[in-house]
Design goal:
heterodimer; A: mainly alpha; about 75% helix; B: about 500 residues; mainly alpha; two-stranded antiparallel sheet; 2 strands
């Protein structure tokens, strides 16, 4: 075996090296200097992300169990970028005294899950897919329980690990049926042999249920709000953006390649789940006052919109999903960044606590507003373009009524996003959050998000690039 | 640079300049200068347009430019104007200019106020110059969203509730529009070839009637919501009553016209068969709008509510006239849009100024204002006369044309609805004269009102600008109607091809 060909896996290998280097750095630094691990890791990860953008080689490894294409490389870059922003946002939180002794754990655990996600996205068979999924999930439970003196955080960890284990079991059960019916676990072989038989239909439903837990689709979403609320904010933002984004990527890939020929079977199923997810999540989000729970339900609703892209099975659908996730990275991390900055400075995490924020912290309020408008799909920010293309994809498959339901849902979502805007700009407060200046790293992260939210939509080149690599991937 | 792109660029530059100002004085001067330039550009555009038509340039759209944006979806930044759009752009420029001066003393968060107000105007210009449904829709939504903070922050009364109601209802309308746009897009290439969002190209093909019947209601009702189509007009009175002066002016004067404009440019122009088959439903609804709005205005005591209901009535007449689908009536519809835009902006400006002095908008608490603030009172009276359709002012020209056009239909149904709609003229006279009588004439009711100050220079500038425009449309309507009717021709021809008339 030629070791040179492992260069195809360079993104995973880089991450593994990064994790190991951080581990060594942890051993090598004395207790007083633990804080210096933060800038070191940030610098290291900037490097890893930058290297990822160098055009790489396509190809397959391990007899087709691992595949790397332009599209998967792009997806991994999106995930890397998201993690980088999360790291920058986490800086001031990690510097707190209670976290000083576990800084490297945060980085190593996060990078480990990212490695799992990268393998998952690059999977060429169900085994790699499943291994990647598990690698991606288990460390997150540790992250969710990171605030070890907070019972809520521990609860979040337990909830996450239990529901993940259950969903993995269901997923595996479904995969075993598909294996039984087709006699293979390789995507290409399964795709060739798949037919709408009852066994495959059953296996497929289990598969969707398992994935539904990961992407938190209704009715598999019950863990989301509690975990999002209990976990530290920087873990929540990771969960809601990176974890969900990666799961959406692989879900789309598997549906568009492996289950392509039984599209008539899965479209009604996805249709129903999409309607349920958008509507129920929106209705729940209306009543939240805790900003993290609020963003949790909002992110469930966003997952429902992603399904619209999936329904337009084809390269436009693939493009719309990948593009939307890219937009969503900037958008949601912008919102979470503000939440995190405010929590670090004042400990406030309720919507009513944000009353009068514009008077004291105008810039944070503006970033938050920009992000919320982008989540609601208001032009001219990127969220509008992301949603519009998802809807274009669904309308292209003839789902006009679904598009109508989705846009009406977007209108409902506008109501609760505007409630936050109202709190910041209109409502009066005797004791507003005092004026503060967040750390340099946080400000860089927020500026990156704001710029991304503002310009990704106008830059049609990004969309066209994704479109071209999606076409390459699907043909 | 293309003069149309300039129309979007100038407001954006103005917004950026406002961000560098420090206080109210800087912000308002920059805004006034920016919108003044914009007014000049709009006037130049008008003369360029007339000049081009005189030299025999009979293309449907002039000053076109086209840049590919999203290549694989065939989305373009495509712009161009015909006479109707030019008229609308001039209306927008006048109302925005007057609006800046009407909010000359906006002390609270003044920079933010002017930024949002001009952002709203930017989006409106963008909407009127767009020939591509995608950019048109983008500008349409962009025009709606600044309303929320504008009403929510600077409004009065139950402002949060009204702002939310207005935003959500209009956004639900845009949801319908979106479905309509997708329907048009995916049926824009029946013989293969690339799909397109371009209005002119879609208008060249014939979409199957069954498809039209499905998508027409989405597009029409979607835009109709912004045009205060009954029963989706309920956002309008609340929204207008709570909004600050300049926002009411811009919203009733210009933004509601986006609804009427979209109704015929997108829904009727591109789906004529469906428009013809379904017209009767919407004719009934708009007749209700017209009469109901007028009756609603009679029962209100709050000046802003009176004017808001009157807007429902007048905007109803716009869509009513459009649905008559002949040259005269549609001519009247566009005239009515412009006339109503100027009139209602003038009304809201005056109401704001009167409220700033008397601190009440309740007509029963005011009286004899003619004695203390004669300038504002006289202008209010003239605006009222324009609204009730006195010859020589814009309202008469518009309504006359509408009803003459509507009466050209020979059948019973059209005759009856026309007569019903006509009755609104009488009801309008009732509520206008009632307000004039109670508020302006007679003895002074409230002793606090005896020492009010008459209009300041900026208020005079704001109202006189609008008043002159109202009178100009009334005195020289043919000039305006010439700009419009040439451009209406292709639309009417397209409709006439499917209507047994």
């Amino acid at each position: 075996m030629d070791f040179g060909q492992f260069i195809i896996m360079r993104q995973e290998l880089l991450l593994i090296i990064a994790a190991v280097v951080i581990l060594i750095a942890e051993i090598a630094t004395s207790d007083e200097k633990k804080g210096s691990i933060i800038p070191f890791s940030l610098g290291l990860f900037v490097l890893v992300t930058a290297v990822g953008f160098i055009p790489g080689q396509e190809g397959t490894l391990f007899g087709g169990a691992y595949q790397s294409t332009q599209l998967t490389m792009f997806m991994k870059n999106v995930l890397n970028l998201a993690v980088l922003i999360v790291f920058f946002q986490a800086e001031s939180w990690l510097k707190k005294p209670e976290n000083l002794d576990k800084i490297s754990e945060y980085f190593i655990l996060t990078i480990s899950t990212l490695i799992g996600m990268n393998f998952m996205v690059s999977a060429g068979d169900f085994l790699t897919f499943y291994l990647g999924l598990e690698t991606a999930t288990i460390p997150i439970a540790g992250l969710a329980a990171f605030d070890k003196y907070k019972s809520q955080s521990a609860e979040a960890g337990i909830k996450l690990i239990l529901s993940s284990a259950l969903s993995s079991g269901i997923l595996l059960f479904g995969l075993s049926m598909i294996y039984g019916a087709t006699g293979s676990i390789y995507f290409a072989d399964v795709a060739a042999k798949i037919a709408p038989t009852p066994l495959i239909a059953l296996g497929f439903i289990f598969f969707v249920a398992g994935m539904g837990f990961k992407i938190s689709l209704v009715p598999f979403h019950f863990w989301t709000a509690d975990v999002y609320e209990g976990a530290p904010i920087n873990v929540t933002s990771y969960l809601s953006v990176v974890s969900k984004g990666a799961a959406a990527f692989i879900f789309t890939i598997v549906l568009f390649t492996v289950f392509k020929s039984i599209v008539a079977l899965w479209q009604p199923l996805i249709y129903t789940i999409a309607v349920a997810t958008m509507t129920l999540a929106n209705l729940f989000a209306l009543r939240q006052n805790n900003i993290k729970r609020f963003l949790a339900f909002s992110s469930i609703a966003q997952a429902g919109f992603i399904l619209l892209g999936i329904l337009g099975a084809g390269d436009l659908g693939m493009t719309a999903v990948v593009y939307f996730v890219l937009v969503y990275v900037f958008t949601n991390l912008g919102a979470f960044g503000v939440v995190s900055a405010i929590y670090d400075a004042s400990g406030v995490e309720t919507i009513s606590g944000y009353n009068g924020l514009y008077k004291t912290n105008p810039n944070l309020s503006l970033v938050m507003t920009l992000s919320l408008f982008s989540l609601a799909g208001i032009p001219p920010v990127a969220g509008f373009f992301g949603k519009f293309f998802l809807f274009t994809s669904a309308a292209g498959a003839g789902y006009y009524i679904l598009v109508l339901i989705a846009v009406l849902n977007a209108t409902i979502s506008l109501y609760y996003y505007l409630k936050v805007v109202k709190a910041m700009f209109i409502d009066q407060n005797d004791q507003p959050i005092p004026t503060f200046r967040s750390s340099m790293a946080m400000r860089i992260a927020l500026v990156v998000c704001a710029v991304g939210v503002f310009f990704v939509g106008f830059a049609s080149g990004i969309f066209e690039y994704i479109r071209s690599i999606s076409q390459l991937f699907l043909n | 640079m293309n003069i149309l792109t300039l129309l979007v660029v100038i407001p954006i530059l103005t917004i950026i300049s406002i961000l560098f100002t420090k206080d109210l004085k800087g912000a308002r001067v920059v805004s006034a200068v920016g919108m003044g330039i914009q007014l000049v550009v709009a006037a130049v555009l008008l003369f360029m347009y007339l000049g081009a038509r005189q030299t025999g340039n009979m293309h449907e759209m002039l000053f076109t430019a086209d840049y590919t944006w999203f290549k694989s979806l065939n989305i373009h930044y495509s712009i161009g104007v015909d006479g109707i759009a030019v008229a609308m752009i001039c209306l927008t420029a006048i109302v925005t200019f007057a609006g800046i001066f009407a909010s000359w003393e906006m002390a609270y968060l003044s920079r933010e106020f002017f930024v949002l107000l001009i952002l709203l105007a930017t989006a409106v210009y963008g909407f009127f110059i767009s020939l591509d449904l995608f950019t048109m829709f983008l500008f349409y939504e962009l025009a709606l969203i600044p309303m929320y903070p504008l009403i929510g922050i600077w409004g009065s009364g139950p402002k949060e509730k009204s702002a939310m109601k207005l935003t959500l209802m209009l956004m639900a309308g845009s949801a319908l529009i979106m479905v309509g746009i997708f329907g048009l897009y995916y049926n824009s290439a029946p013989n293969g070839g690339p799909l397109t969002f371009n209005i002119i190209e879609i208008s060249k093909i014939i979409i199957p009637e069954k498809t039209q019947m499905f998508f027409f209601p989405f597009a029409f009702v979607g835009f109709g919501i912004l045009g205060a189509l009954f029963p989706f007009h309920t956002w309008s009175p609340d929204g207008h009553a709570s909004a600050p002066t300049a926002v009411s002016m811009l919203h009733a004067g210009v933004l509601m016209k986006l609804g009427g404009y979209g109704c015929f440019r997108v829904a009727m122009f591109l789906m004529p068969q469906a428009a013809n088959s379904m017209a009767w439903i919407f004719i009934i609804l708009t007749s209700i709008s017209v009469v109901y709005g007028a009756f609603g205005a009679i029962w209100q005591k709050d000046l802003k509510f009176i004017n808001a209901y009157s807007s429902v009535s007048h905007c109803g007449l716009v869509i009513f006239a459009l649905l008559m689908m002949n040259q005269t009536a549609m001519d009247g519809a566009i005239l009515q849009m412009i006339s109503h835009g100027l009139m209602t902006a003038l009304f809201f400006a005056l109401i704001g100024m009167i409220y700033g002095r008397t601190h009440t908008r309740n007509v029963t608490e005011m009286g004899g204002l003619m004695k203390v603030i004669p300038f504002l009172a006289v202008v209010y009276m003239i605006a009222g006369f324009a609204s009730l359709g006195l010859p020589g002012l814009s309202g008469f020209v518009a309504e006359m044309t509408v009803f003459v056009g509507a009466f050209q239909h020979q059948d019973m149904f059209h005759r009856v609805v026309t007569v019903i709609a006509c009755s609104s003229i009488v009801i309008t006279a009732v509520y206008i004269l009632r307000v004039v009588g109670m508020m302006l004439l007679g003895p002074i009711k409230d002793p606090h009102h005896e020492h009010l100050e008459d209009a300041k220079w900026y208020e005079k500038l704001s109202t006189v600008t609008l008043l002159v425009s109202v009178a100009a449309v009334g005195i020289a309507p043919l000039w305006l109607s010439e700009v419009i009717s040439g451009s209406l021709k292709p639309i009417v021809d397209k409709l006439a091809a499917v209507i047994p008339f």
